[in-house]
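Researcher: Structure prediction, please.
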Amino acid sequence: MKNYIFTIARGFGSGGKQIGMQLANELGIECYEHRILALASQYSGYVEAEFKENDERLKGSYLINKLAAIPLLLAATPEEREFREFQSQHIRYYKYQEQIIKELADTKSCVFIGKCADYILKDRKNVISIYIEAPRDFCVQRIQNRMGISVAEANKKIEKTDRYRAEYYEFFTGGGDWMCPVNYDLTINSARVGKVDDLSDCVKLIKLYAQMKFGADFAE
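Model: Predicted structure follows.
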């Protein structure tokens, strides 16, 4: 197998982003999240006549280097907005975002967090799609620890962010349910598999499944 891909969808506060980044670090591969959207937003400013030229440039080492130049965002990033307010903006970004994800998946092993990557790559045999979720109290505690906010504020951010993600996924997948377990290879309750301050067992579980699915083709 040329490469293997992990996609991670996650409830806000469940630790999915941290799990994805730790998984990528342990495997020595790249983790992509907001950098895909950041690059897609740059290219969405081109007029349609320039699209073909940029389409040809969003490939191989050029694409990888462009993404590497965008700083990795480690902090929790809640959504304070409503999806419908930015729907038209995301429509402009999406064709680039989809192209970037497919090109990266063709080129190298990596981890994608969010961005409908599980749907975009759903027909590929070298992909493991994962959904990370946890009970509300677990998510609230993690958000409080990371952001230093009250229980009420943490609950509000979880509700807004998860609603945004669900509406985003439904819109771009043609009615797909972001939380539906049959969309994924694995659905992990991070509160049961991990701990508030230690999600390493979640990473171990994903790696164990990768060994089962890919066999000798999967090398840590």
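Model: The first helix runs from residue 16 to 27.
Researcher: Thanks, that helps.
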